[in-house]
Design a protein that fits this description.
Two copies of one chain form a homodimer. Chain A has three domains: 151 residues, Cellobiose dehydrogenase, cytochrome domain (Immunoglobulin-like, Sandwich); 157 residues, Copper type II, ascorbate-dependent monooxygenase, N-terminal domain (Jelly Rolls, Sandwich); 189 residues, Jelly Rolls. In chain A, strands 6, 7, 8, 9, 12, 13 and 40 form a seven-stranded antiparallel sheet that branches. In chain A, strands 33-30-36-27-37-38-39 form a seven-stranded mixed sheet. In chain A, strands 14, 17, 21, 22, 25 and 26 form a six-stranded mixed sheet that branches. The longest helix of chain A has 15 residues. The first copy, chain A, is mainly beta.
């Protein structure tokens, strides 16, 4: 990866650290197991290609995680670099990055001896040794840059205390032990220096397409920006393509990260501006500044997107993203999200994205289509809900009209909600039967919106339905959350990347507004309350005045599951395909996809429920 | 068991049938397993006490099932007597007695050799060999009365094709092969002579209390009735206790079945009449006859109940059911359900129930309390539903008022619904947390309403809540099913038998009628339909005029889950305890009972996926 800090990834011929191979027995409250031997790493350092994915865990980059994925074995191999080991560390996974109900690998030292074990934390954050040891230590090695720990973990262990590694976002957590501890149980999680990092662990296993010899590159990078000393900054920078820049195909792009800023650059996107405007003002500053020209809001067409932990993005060999030429704007907007929780001052940054493009156009232009819900307040989430579901439809009627007979192939997907989003999934349905998951993230975070390559192309034909379902959490809100563009409003969108490009840009839905009006009338009459349902009051105002209780909540759910929809089957955000799109029937599903049955590790061998002792020498006090 | 046909149960010293012990290998589409050896029964016939439970499977009694239950092993041992073996038989279990998606043990013959195997039927009724053989054949033996097959089956096998044996009703199915078949797959299920029988397989393991020496018996039996030659008859017969019959305790009762009628007598109940009336007319005839005096409808207090497959019913040693004495009616009604699907003519019957009672009163009078829903049309089920749920509450307020500080002990339970009932469960909740299942039947059938002893006493204290949930299927109905006494109306009741007796006879609920009225208004306005919600139209009429769709259905569900309730906290069906019982809040549940995790058989040994050959000699063509 270009621009990555080199100290962690360069192989260096340092003396390997020996592990004492000890077998002993321990008693736990759960069971007694035999301790098996630790397999020591051989003297050679692991090759960089062994661990193609890398991410810093903490904002200072003290912990650096590399990993690889074996789909045949259904196993992830982790290599954790600890730059400055004190008295141990915790590494693990949990539903949304919390330290309660987490699944953890723990390395701890009592000042003399060090141990490694698979543990879990209960709802109070108390650590327990796991009865089944599924983080399997493969080795440990000292190097000048720090200690390397190597371990593996099956996707699914069938141990109810363990995290199930699935497609989509995984919330990794870490904690650093700064004092010796006498036992695992003695670790006080709340007193640790700790944090979380989101990654897509199960990267798709995609072969890199051959790249043409006439490929050119263009770096869209920030002009030596001083990163503001605040936790969150969205930086905006306008770039202009040369005059008469002809049509090219972007066939690949990759991040360019200023050395030392790997832990600060959270994600970056390059947008193309709207072709309607002849020119856009130059700008270089925070995206939320009052000084930012309003016209920059018309630069929303995604050309490239990168997020921490992501690698280079390759288009499939048949397709490229059109870029330049008549009918497209010469103006691009680079947006960088700096995440600076330790409030470093005076850090300079010139990160960005390097586009690889070619004038030798590929067979197909790639396109991007929006699936999900229309940005409208008629789709709303009551307050105080832990998992409220909204669904947006791309109907058979729209796909029949807009897709070519040979269909389209979806190869990548970017899921999008605002702050209340917790899960997003799009399912393909044909003849009323669910056929295939297009993309799913059961641990979705609005703070981690990557463009993700799909594991396999999804073919969509005329008459197919694409159903996008978002799950929201509004437990911390006291009034309804309506759909819309605002950060406290919500969206439910899947931007699917596909080829060949069609005219269909939007295939989204929302509940019929007339039926929603009946809902407000109903709530008003049922609850004997003064809910103003007069037409001059806005839909958000009406939602805000609903007296929320389980009945009004359940009836809203029933309405969304029953009322006809208004379809946006659009060529561009303002131009609909011809046809009747109001009061359309909801798609009916007669057959659901079966729940996936987790594959358990074959023939569970002896996995000790006891810590594995490690000889790491005397640790720093 | 008194009155049971003797041929099947008498041990007889007949020559035991030898099994050829053969090990061979078979290939199936699923897997290859080693065939293990069949364990031959030793020469001695099994003792009757080995299989304490017995039931005929078919109306002619050709197949007779005996079984026992081992709770430590979590296994049921079956002994199946086949009186006239042709070319094999099917025996198995399915959700509600259907032959599709069933779990089957199959004995079949090609005319020369015979085989036994564990099979399953798919949704089309096609048979397949099971990849895991969980019906384990233990032996086969010929006797003058027929062939005995002995096999065992774990409650839970963790094979997704297998039926999970749970508490409550199990629908057993059987089929008789009248022609040789070349393979399991060649069996055409729809062409078989076949049927179903309902039993409680998992009988509670209760030690019989010691019985007093001064115990007397009284037989309440039909007076040599000619069983009508029609499939279903409910026969009513009035009996009178002697004048001045003093108070006794019934401490046990058992069925008395006329020999030969074991397969025809489906269930029997003895009811005591209401004490308000000095006399009741004599009657001996069908319960639905126009000649039956109306006053017999006041004989509804259950004294004893028996259903096919049930044994003697013993009261706990501390308690007995009060019977006789001042304040109780001298009149009893015996009701016998004859099930005569083969329309036998001229069969005479004098079956009934033998009561065992004593004048030496036990410490506590036993009582019966009704839990669940009030018999009122406000609780209704929309048409076309496969699993609609209604819930009745016995609230903390009522139990606090009516129960003694030391609480009561529930020892038995009889679940009751009309024809649409599919599941019934009562859960005890304390301080908003579900604590214990009182009684549950996930395969409930309205045609099999036994009084069931609980596996353990359930202690209920003042302030506890008892929540009874019924699941209904109305897929075959075109209009709403309302609550009420009619056979096409519904009930949701758990008659719990407990001690010490209290004044509380009814602890049931129904939705507040005012809220239901709002529902009808809401449906009317939302659907733009003419639903007459005028007060002069009855609640059933209003339900019948609802235009049913998923919205109106879901809103009714939401209403039942939200609206306050009207409580019937009654001393007798007409007399409420003092207090405010209208518009009571619904009990809230903050913690549910966890779903039980089925225990899989320990260390699955080699179980062949291939039929076990049996040498049964030449079978009759």
């Amino acid at each position: 990866l270009p621009g990555m800090q080199s100290s962690g990834s360069k192989p260096c011929p340092c003396p390997s650290f020996k592990l004492r191979e000890v077998a002993s027995m321990y008693f736990t409250m759960i069971a007694v197991f035999l301790v098996i031997l630790v397999v020591a790493l051989q003297g050679s350092a692991p090759r960089r290609s062994d661990f193609p994915y890398k991410v810093p865990l903490d904002p200072q980059g003290m912990l650096e995680l590399s990993w690889n994925v074996s789909y045949p074995e259904q196993v992830v191999h982790f290599q954790l670099l600890v730059r400055d080991l004190r008295f141990g560390l915790l590494f693990g996974m949990s539903d949304r990055g919390e330290f309660e109900n987490a699944d953890l690998a723990v390395l701890w030292s009592d000042g003399h001896s060090s141990y490694f074990g698979d543990a879990w934390s209960d709802a109070q954050g108390q650590l327990h040794m796991d009865s089944q040891q599924d983080y399997q230590l493969l080795g440990a090695r000292r190097a000048p840059e720090g200690l390397y720990l190597l371990f593996r973990r099956a996707f699914s262990t069938c141990d109810p205390k363990d995290y199930l590694i699935e497609d989509g976002t995984v919330h990794l957590i870490y904690g650093i032990l700064e004092k010796p501890v006498h036992s695992l149980q003695a670790i006080n999680i709340s007193a640790l220096h700790r944090g979380l990092q989101r990654v897509q662990l199960l990267k798709p296993n995609i072969t890199v397409p051959e790249l043409p010899s006439n490929m050119k590159t263009m770096e869209i990078t920030a002009p030596n920006v001083v990163i503001p000393s605040q936790e969150t900054t969205y930086w905006c920078y306008m770039i202009e393509l040369p005059d008469h820049f002809p049509k090219h195909h972007i066939i690949m792009y990759e991040p360019v990260i200023t050395a030392g800023n790997e832990a600060l650059v959270h994600h970056m996107e390059v947008f193309q501006c709207a072709a309607e405007f002849d020119s856009f003002p130059h700008y270089n500053g925070p995206c939320d500044s009052k000084m930012k020209p309003d016209r920059l809001n018309y630069c929303r067409h995604v050309l490239a997107a990168w997020a921490m932990g992501a690698q280079a993005f390759y288009y499939p060999k048949e397709a490229g993203l059109a870029f330049g030429g008549p009918g497209s704007s010469r103006y691009l907007r680079l947006e960088i999200h700096y995440h600076n929780p330790l409030v470093f001052k005076g850090r300079h940054d010139s990160s960005g994205i390097r586009l690889y493009y070619t004038a030798t156009l590929r067979r197909y232009d790639a396109g991007i289509m929006e699936l999900g819900l229309v940005y409208t307040p008629v789709m709303a989430i009551p307050p105080g809900e832990d998992a409220f579901i909204l669904t947006g439809y791309c109907t058979d009627k729209c796909s029949r009209l807009a897709l070519p007979a040979a269909g389209i192939r979806i190869f990548a997907s970017q899921l999008h909600t605002h702050l209340a989003g917790r899960k997003v999934v799009t399912v393909l349905s044909r003849d009323g039967r669910e056929r295939q998951v297009v993309n799913a993230d059961g641990h979705y975070s609005p703070h981690f919106q990557e463009i993700r390559m799909l594991k396999e192309l999804v073919a969509v034909f005329p008459g197919d339905e694409l159903i996008t379902t978002c799950t929201y959490n509004t437990e911390d809100r006291s009034r309804a959350t309506v759909g819309g563009f605002g950060i406290l409003e919500e969206m439910c969108v899947n931007y699917v990347h596909y080829y060949p490009q069609t005219q269909l840009e939007l295939c989204k839905s929302a509940v019929d507004p007339g039926y929603l009006h009946r809902y407000f009338n109903l709530v008003n009459r049922f609850n004997d309350e003064e809910v103003c349902t007069c037409p001059q009051v806005s839909v958000p105002q009406q939602f805000f005045s609903v007296p929320w209780n389980s009945f009004n909540r359940d009836v809203l759910k029933s309405l969304y599951g029953f009322a006809p929809i208004s379809m946006h089957c659009n060529k561009s955000s303002a131009v609909r395909f011809p046809g009747e799109w109001e009061k359309q029937p909801l798609p009916t599903i007669t057959e659901r996809l079966p729940e996936p049955v987790p594959r358990c590790p074959p023939a569970p061998g002896p996995r000790p429920a006891a810590p594995v002792p490690l000889d790491l020498g005397q640790l720093r006090r």
